[in-house]
Predict the 3D structure of the following.
Amino acid sequence: LLPPPLEKAHLAHFQVPGIGAAEHLVFASEYEAADPEIAARYRANVANQSAHALLFRHRSGGPRPTLIAIHGFGMGRLHVDLAWLRLRGLDLAGLHRELGIDVAYLILPFHGPRAGGGVSGAGFFDTHPLVAAAAIGQAVWDVRRVAGWLRAQGVPALGVQGLSLGGCVAALYASLDASLACAMPMIPAVDLAGVFWGQLPEARRRDWERTGLGREQIYVAEEAEHLRA
């Protein structure tokens, strides 16, 4: 299912220490979880329904080749000083300044401003396996909408880079977009069911195991949700 074109978005301008001028892009994600068992619960996360990205674009020379960068689990806090160090960890400053390209830093579902005031990343892997699968689906959905919006802005070439969980999302998106100039999954998370199981509180893991829901069943649930999406 192709996401709708991104036509209504809000842009705010500000300065990022060590990097320079940036734009904060906010838009309605419009993603709906495919599985009816968790659809209403997923929709109830109001903050997560707004997608966010930071745009680092050169002011001269028109649209430039652009890299969509996706952070790892627990990152994406836009207004915390350490977040800027993490941005540099993805080398966004170097890519923007030294290579002369534009960068779009996408915030994953349930992270940063999408966490609803809680811990960045809470709710992604630690509630229900179908919610985790839907969050991955929403992440790819949001990347596709941002990519379409950038192309509509006249971007001549587009690539994607992701770190850890973001690397998984980058690889999934690259499998859907043959026109990408490049795709760079960095230490991508590949065993998502294992990551989910590891993020669950120990008491909840024991409760689930007593009911017959263990790690192997999570693999099956995750695959089913991806097939539906």
About this structure: Residues 224-229 have pLDDT under 50 and may be disordered. The chain is about 40% helix and 20% strand.
